[in-house]
Please model this.
Amino acid sequence: MAQRKPGKEAAGLRQHQEAVDRYGSDLPKIAVLAGECEFLRSRAVAVCREAWGRRFPEGDQIVVRCSGEARPATLNDLARELSGGSLFGKEKLVVARDAGRILFPVATQNLDEPAAASSHPSSSKPRDREKAFVDCLEKPAARIWLLIETAELPLNRTLGKRLRETALVAPCPQPNQRELVPWLQNQARESGKILMDDALDLLFRSHGSDPGLLASEVDKLILYADAAERIDAAMVGKFLTGSIEFEFFGYTNAIEQKNLPEALFYARRIALQGSRDQKGKRENAENSAHKILALLANTLQNLLRARLALARRQDAYTFAGEAKIVPYRAEMLLAASGRYTPRELRRMLAYAADQIRRTHDTGGDVLLALELMAVKFAGGMFR
Model:
């Protein structure tokens, strides 16, 4: 197993948590939750709103949604909520969700119109509205607090610079696997559980490095563990049995290990479950076969990349950075790719692509396709 390297990687989550904790203790008039990780932003919004509500239980919380199916808010709407403060009225927290769309629009977008509806060039009027909003930030109304959630906080925009100067900024970066290890272990520790390294390995390999998904799985494992203190790989395997992500992980892992009986076992389980769409609804056989075969083709592509990385003598961390995968997965792929020649992997990938075309054009039997793949790939028929 690749040794976990300490260093700057842990700074992102640590700075995020320190800023969120500071909000809870200081309650600054203006705070910004900015970064590409939507899970961290949403989680921080909930924590900050709860902290503000504890301080002002009788106060009002107004949520301004700057995107969505309904008419999104404009900069004028947000400015209107920030005005009208009273020395003797209730405290009010204005929460601007996904505010980057109206705070930092593209150059040709009217600052007071939805992005999709605007095609007019920028004018002085929108800039006046932006300047008026900056003035609101520099002289916030009495009894009004502002919490901004945005995916970006650009330094090359006037408003971005002013927010960095006047607000508490909580970074919400997309964490990498090395940051997630102590974060998830701490999550388990707060509930009196010990999340073992082998359990984390299995979670990362089967679910990737999405923090929201991993945090949800750890929460479920904490409940599943019941009175047990330790959560290990055996417990994770029992818990995840039946999950399509875990079954597919087992299938591809068996192919990587050239374990034909295990690959056939998982092929039957995957075919029985099928794949699901983004809303969790079971898909039809044709879509399910196409999606599952596409996932397998992606695994073969990563195996071929790993084989080339081995030839260049790359370690797991270097390969993980290039392939944009977690180091644990990179290590597994590097080990598995040594069992195949580049020629063998290219032929396997071509065969998978042909099967994808067939299922796309004519439909297909999920079980038959997966069993054929298992026999041909794990059975070494492409040497």
Remarks:
- The two ends are 28 Å apart (CA to CA).
- The chain has 17 helices and seven strands.
